[in-house]
Predict the structure.
Amino acid sequence: MAGNLSGFYHSSVPESELLLVHMVKCPQPIPTAMPDPTLIPVYGHEWAQRLLQSAVLSGRASHAYLFVGPDQIGKTTMARAFAQALTCESPQAGAGLGACGRCRACRLAAEGGHPDHRMVEPAGGQLKIEQVRDLIQEAMLSPVEGRTKVFIIPSFERANLNAANALLKTLEEPSPTTRILLTSNESSSLLATITSRCQTMQLRPVPAETVAAALQTHWQTPEEQASLLAGLSGGRLGWAVQVATQPQLWQRHESQLQAAQDIVKQSVNDRLSLAADLVKETDVELLLRDWLMWWRDVMLAQQGCLDLVVNRNRLGEVQSLARNTRPGEVRRFIEALMTTAGYLRTNVSAQLAVEALLLKAPIAS
Ligand SMILES: [Zn+2]
């Protein structure tokens, strides 16, 4: 049934945002009702939602927050929902971060048109000092609608040193009407002077059950596909939503899994030429994630743990590969996949890193 996902794709709702190599059980009740369309929904991270709601209701929100965690687990969505709650005209206790979901400010925030909300995204892969200077100037102006202006800067690890230092001054002398929300996939790559001036919220991947429930209730994904994608997502709701709503991403995922099976029969030359193609044509980071989940499944099948396999739609292929490869080689390749993902975040050549990786792939016996 691989690739047979007809009827899978429904209305596309945009969603912004390394994998946990284990299954996560959901400790919280899962919402089953369709959420209020004027509330920016946050799925999972319940402890953070409660903490932020309490800051909103008490009127004691810090001037700067830093949301840290793996890519696509909902950091920017959390920041947007917090911005909505911070500017809500009549915040209230209950589910979510405290926004009422009914006032004019909440409506504007849900539509992405609140004049006191500013999203400052890295331009050309890097956040530059000019962008931070603009932010600082804007922060000096009074809010347009209410009492608070909120600036969201996603992927702050992409700020160059000058930009980070420029923001530091604003964080040191905060304006009482301004809140700054940063997100980052790694707090250790940020200046300590920045992180020490922010309240840091360390977010973890979202439990699979929560991802599946969110796909069904908010993106109308059929139950079976929601469950499959939730397992494959490794807790990255953003990835699951993108794949559920964009057919070409599912096709790319499928072709990457085919490449993961083909490679075990390929010669050194074939592998080197595949490396060149992958670097040219693929998002290598996404490829590594897909392959990591795939080879983890092969390892689980070799250990007889079929119930933990997440590529359930390709169980026969996982078992076949498990029979035809040596467990030691599979384990070493999984380690190499994780090491390569780390290398790619530094300045190594992607081509060399992927070539070295592919030469370590298991050989079919
Ligand atoms: Zn409101």
About this structure: Residues 1-32 have pLDDT under 50 and may be disordered. Residues 88-90, 99-100, 102-103, 105-106 surround zinc ion (CB under 6 Å). Residues 48 and 201 are 7 Å apart (CA to CA).
